[in-house]
## 1
Amino acid sequence: MHEALHVMHYRQIQHALNFTGGNKSRAYEYLKEHGYTQEFLKIFFEGAGDRQIFHFNPDREHVYIMKYDHEAISEAIREYQMFLKPQ
């Protein structure tokens, strides 16, 4: 589940980069306009205004996952445990 969250986050960034022709500053603005928080964007981008560069910060991503995605991880574990119970 943990790795799936990394992949999901990366795909969101990659979608924005593809949509903007690889322009990192435009991808940043695209994501911002579509409701992504500054906290999320700081995981992948560094810079100011139209001078954004791609800068992946795994430590920030792990903090973000623990803060916002922890419940999704817990739910996945509960579902997995239900399937393991003898019938």
## 2
Amino acid sequence: MSNWTERQRIAFPAELLTEANQLAALIDPDTGGAFTFSTDRTIGDLIVAAIPFKTDFWPLVARQDPDEWAAAIPQLAESCGREPIPEATIRTLCAAMLINDAIPSEYSRA
């Protein structure tokens, strides 16, 4: 059994490109996570990517609970030897993220 989910479609407002990639770098620190979102995959005002998540981490992401994110993401940064994301940024990303079916249909091509 895999430790990874199927790819999940994730979107953020394009103005959060840098911050979204900081988060992606923590989720996928070994395989170019810092380049997950790009202007090449910006449709309208959203940046969209299809991302596999560790199965034990996906439920936390999907719940989009800002307090859970604020507690877990700094621990994730520490575990992979990366700089932590400021709590205000974590909360902004949590509130702004769209997942799978919450992404408007005009963005389904990403």
## 3
Amino acid sequence: MNKVVITDSDKFEDIIQLFEHTIPKIKGHFDSERRNSQEINATATWTGASQRALYDKYKMLEANFNPIVETLELYTRFLKKTLEDYKMLEQQINAKAEDFSDQLNVNS
């Protein structure tokens, strides 16, 4: 598995925004699939054993739609919190480094 390490917080933020903008699209695809499935199942367009078997398998898949979206939303919140914590820690480190630098009279 290839691992990507992002050290630029702006790039990380861009990825988070990409996630946020993608989730509604995924929800839209799932909603569209639900509507299509309900429409096909509600009509006599296709009936028989194979239709029932396929529909049953679809219903098992559909049960995962909401958990998938919830997981993506949770992961996005996790990424946002991670970035916030990183920025806060970076500010604290910089402030301590400046204090330490002042105490040592560096560059004076």
